[in-house]
Design a protein that fits this description.
183 residues; mainly beta; lipopolysaccharide transport protein A fold; 12-stranded antiparallel beta sheet
Length: 183
């Protein structure tokens, strides 16, 4: 009788374990499984804050940071969310920030958009979108830009800002304000 009771208890234990597993299986299953691609299509994707520096001949030439980085090898481009760039020119450090930056290698330019702010030693510029060409050090764009300095402010569209030459060109809708300096 002792062997029979033991066998019954073993069967009850096995049935309880199997029943519990079956119950967990059916209760834990989602009602409907969706096959959805949540990737961005990027071949390399970094999420979270990051920083990158580029040195040439021992000098820091370009420093950038952002919130997310995505690289698309097929397109030859990358994009950065919440970018911040800092680079050296003959006139000093320039910092640029915005909401999104896209680099196209075939065009060799970085397009920065969304509340873009450019800061230099003697000026600040604000626009919704601009293009930066690292090889020539030129900032250009067609959207409205406002540039401010000590005692002056100018705004317009269709602009070129040559950082190395400290030269600024506006071709449409130009407005300016200049404060009279001591004579």
């Amino acid at each position: 009788m002792a062997i029979g009771k033991r066998r019954i208890y073993e069967w009850i234990l096995v049935a309880g374990i199997v029943g519990g597993m079956a119950l967990l299986y059916f209760l834990g299953r989602p009602g409907e499984i969706k096959n959805e691609d949540i990737s961005s299509g990027a071949e390399l994707e970094l999420r979270g804050k990051f920083s990158v520096a580029r040195y040439e001949q021992g000098e820091l030439k370009l420093w950038s940071q952002g919130k997310e980085f995505r690289y698309f090898r097929g397109k030859g481009s990358y994009e950065i969310l919440e970018p911040a760039f800092e680079f050296e020119t003959g006139q000093g450090k320039i910092s640029v920030g915005g909401e999104k930056a896209v680099y196209q290698s075939n065009e060799k330019r970085i397009q920065i958009s969304g509340a873009v702010e450019v800061r230099g030693k003697d000026f600040m510029a604000f626009s919704e979108q601009l293009n930066y060409e690292p090889d020539s050090g030129m900032i250009s764009g067609e959207k409205r830009i406002k540039v401010q300095g000590a005692g002056w402010e100018i705004e317009g569209t269709n602009y070129k800002l040559m950082l190395e030459e400290k030269k600024f060109e506006l071709s449409k809708g130009v407005k300016g304000q200049f404060e009279k300096q001591g004579i």
